[in-house]
Specification:
Number of helices: 10
Structural class: alpha+beta
Number of strands: 18
Largest sheet: 4 strands, antiparallel
Shape: elongated
Strand order of the largest sheet: 6-5-7-8
Order of helices and strands: HEEHEEHEEHEEEEEHEEEEEEEHHHHH
Number of domains: 3
Distance between the termini: 20 Å
Length: 436
């Protein structure tokens, strides 16, 4: 294993620890604000480093797959004996306890906003400008038969200007198979083409078989990828694929056949043969499998935002992350078989490891997305095992104006224990099966 491998493993572990640390830090700060004494603040499990400062013992565990704080008179994940002292967690009122519990997920959202801002302001956001140019054309679809070509630009559909690629695909999808008149620009010429969209049997939507144009410039390559081993490098411009001149970045399906590329590097034209290799990755169904790959990536220039625009971007991306999670949960709720896509520490570690190879910006963006995920998971109103579950219990007590009896709490804790163990086993088995 190379030094790059261990560097990426270290970055992934550090990222995972950062997610947990911020979550627990939220609980810790909230405890301090409402006057709850914190006995233990631990990152990871099986402590190997411990130091008591003031009233709190700070610990770092050998297993960086979680963390916890232990407030006096009660734990945030299970009830405990309380003496009734004013600085104990269970002595506080409903709103104070809820504030402490909500502070963890809230801190994860804050982390996501901050990280997205760092990416936008200091590193820059990958950007491309889809100007309605056509990239690859698919066989057995009407666009190719109608005479469209790579590099053509779609100006209008049915005499209505199209300002974005989203508008183009939207108009095609809602055509219901009726002919559409496209105004096309090719070099300096403009002309009309009538194309009848065809229904995609796999997805049930209407398409004409066109893909978005991307400049054929190679992005960052993994040093272990077939493309890098063949001699290709970042910023190489592809001009031919298997002897065929191209204008757009080639969307090449995995194959056992070698790939012959002619590229332009500065003022030179060079030829390379890429031998495909099997690499681990996720397919369109979200399942891990080893697939043949050439290891090519697209280069997108990065654009740094102003301070204010970086804040707008970070808020927007955090909101988009929330919507993605909600959509995923709705899909799982509608089709229970999709629960197999749920992942735990193993999957998260793998994702962080893979994104760490792509560069700092991609790793930070993934940290932000996972941080929002962690916030959502902890807000689930599952009995005892989440922050949201504990808030639900305390809300019921507040409405009843009476705490649950010791026996009832013991039952709730037992249910919570079996729920968390069952969920953990299910997710870990999912992770193991996914990578077999």
């Amino acid at each position: 294993m190379t030094i790059d491998f261990w560097i990426n493993v270290f970055k992934a572990a550090l990222a995972f620890t950062l997610l947990v640390w911020f979550h627990e830090l939220g609980h810790f700060i909230a405890c301090k604000l409402v006057g709850v004494r914190v006995e233990v603040f631990s990152i990871g499990f099986v402590p190997i480093i411990k130091k008591k400062i003031g009233e709190t013992e700070y610990a770092i565990g050998a297993i960086p797959l979680g963390g916890y704080i232990k407030p006096a008179g009660g734990d945030l994940s299970a009830d405990a004996e309380s003496t009734g002292a004013p600085d104990e967690f269970l002595s506080k009122n409903f709103w104070q306890k809820s504030f402490i519990l909500l502070a963890g997920p809230l801190m994860n959202v804050v982390l996501a906003i901050f990280v997205f801002w760092v990416v936008a302001f200091f590193i820059g956001v990958s950007e491309f400008h889809p100007d309605n140019r056509i990239g690859q054309l698919e066989k057995d679809y009407p666009a190719l038969a109608a005479g469209l070509a790579e590099g053509d630009r779609i100006l209008e559909i049915n005499q209505v200007k199209t300002s974005s690629w989203e508008e183009v695909t939207k108009n095609i999808k809602k055509s219901n198979g009726k002919p559409l008149v496209f105004k096309i620009q090719r070099d300096s010429k403009e002309f009309d083409l009538t194309i009848t969209p065809k229904k995609d049997p796999q997805y049930g939507t209407y398409r004409i078989g066109i893909k978005l144009f991307f400049d054929p410039v190679i992005g960052k390559l993994d040093k272990n990828s077939p493309a890098y081993k063949a001699g290709l490098r970042r910023f190489d411009k592809i001009i031919e694929v298997n002897g065929r001149p191209i204008k757009s970045f080639p969307m090449i399906a995995p194959s056992e056949k070698p790939l012959n590329l002619k590229i332009q590097r500065e003022s030179k034209e060079l030829s390379f043969k890429i031998i495909p290799e099997k690499e681990g990755g996720f397919n369109y169904s979200g399942e891990y499998e080893k697939q043949l790959s050439y290891g090519l990536t697209i280069y997108f220039p990065r654009k740094k935002f102003t301070f204010v625009n970086s804040i707008k971007y970070s808020l927007k991306m955090t909101g988009v992350s929330c919507l993605l999670i909600i959509q995923a949960l709705k899909m799982i709720a509608q089709k229970i078989s999709m629960a197999k896509q749920l992942g735990g520490p193993i999957l998260i570690s793998y994702i962080l490891y893979e994104t760490s190879k792509s560069g700092l910006a991609d790793l930070l963006s993934m940290i932000a997305l996972l941080s929002v995920n962690l916030a959502f998971i902890n807000l689930f109103p599952l009995i005892i095992i989440t922050d949201g579950g504990q808030i639900s219990i305390f809300a019921i007590e507040a409405l009843r104006k009476k705490r649950f009896s010791a026996k009832s709490r013991a039952i709730l804790n037992t249910i919570g224990f079996f729920l968390v163990i069952s969920l953990a086993v299910f997710i870990i088995v999912n992770d193991i099966i996914r990578f077999l």
